[in-house]
């Protein structure tokens, strides 16, 4: 497993890469990719860090697991590759943006365009075995991604954390709400969204309003 991350992250995360748990995680991931079909492709495992530099980071969206179907996962939470059918949660994200900001529903579900503007699209677990949701949980990824959240919390200010659903909301304990902004709602999955916990949260307009208040450029969602 090659750790491809933007150079701006390295001084903050190099110590993490040297820890025993991370070495064990690397060996686990290498073994899984050799024996099984896994996602995302190896070179895209750290895509979230490659597209969003530490210096530009201003918004964090936390997901749980990569998509486990063919050609879907590209290393950014909720994102799929160009030309791939949009999964249900992503459809609901785009519908909320449409309602909130009056932006037309996009053809592409590839969210690299968000990451390039400083949105870290961070799954708690960065790899998965094909067709087996959660198969790479509890192998060390969560320790690493929690360390990433703590690093952002400690070394940045005025970052907006979007916590969608119960799993993401648990990460609020790692975030100092006096230094940063936390917006919480239900998950965009149909199960949650259709029960009234997602639509109307206006997280996208609220995020842009907060960014402008602290002198940062709004995100082109």
Q: Return Rg in Å.
A: 17 Å
Oligomer: single chain
- Give the N-terminus to C-terminus distance in angstroms: 31 Å
Indicate the overall shape.
Answer: globular
How many beta strands in the DSSP annotation? 6
Mean pLDDT: 95
Report strand %: 5-15%
Q: How much helix is in the residues? A: 25-40%
Largest beta-sheet characterization: 4 strands, parallel
Q: Would you tell me the structural class of the helices and strands? A: alpha/beta
Unreliable stretches (pLDDT < 50, length at least 5) are none
Instruction: Give me the number of helical elements.
Output: 9
Spatial arrangement of strands, main beta sheet = 3-2-5-6
**What is the N-to-C succession of helices and strands?**
HHEHEHHEEHEHEHH
Describe this structure in words.
The chain has 9 helices and 6 strands, in the order H-H-E-H-E-H-H-E-E-H-E-H-E-H-H. With 221 residues, the protein is an alpha/beta fold. The strands form 2 sheets. Strands 3-2-5-6 form a 4-stranded parallel sheet. Helix 7 links the parallel strand 5 (160-164) and strand 6. It starts with 6 loop residues before the first helix and ends in an 8-residue tail after the last helix. The mean pLDDT is 95.
